[in-house]
Amino acid sequence: MDLFESNNIPFQNIIGFGSDGCNTMFGANNSVVSRLKLNLPGIIVLFWPVIVKI
């Protein structure tokens, strides 16, 4: 949240967030999504799996 504030980006301008499903981004405790939802309860959150072909 400090990044948004330091760059003068109002929280009202953030309507959505999308990322892969790693715990850092989508974990239940202390993740990016959990912090965003605390400050922006109406945020749209999208998850898409990363598919790697070997």
Please, could you describe this protein's structure?
The chain is an alpha+beta fold. It has one domain. Helix content is 31%, strand content 15%. The chain contains three helices and two strands, in the order H-E-H-H-E. Strands 1-2 form a two-stranded parallel sheet. The longest helix has 8 residues. The radius of gyration is 13 Å and the shape is elongated. The N and C termini lie far apart (37 Å).
Whole-number radius of gyration? 13 Å
**Biggest sheet, in brief?**
2 strands, parallel
Shape: elongated
The helix tally amounts to 3
Helix content: 25-40%
**Oligomeric state:** single chain
**Can you tell me the number of structural domains?**
1
- What is the H-and-E element order? HEHHE
Write down the overall mean pLDDT: 85
Strand element count: 2
Low-confidence stretches: none
Can you lay out the helices and strands and say which pair or pack?
Layout: H1 2-6, E1 16-19, H2 23-26, H3 32-39, E2 44-47
Parallel strand pairs: 1-2
What keyword list fits this structure?
31% helix, two-stranded parallel ribbon
In short:
With 54 residues, this protein is α+β, with helices and mostly antiparallel strands.
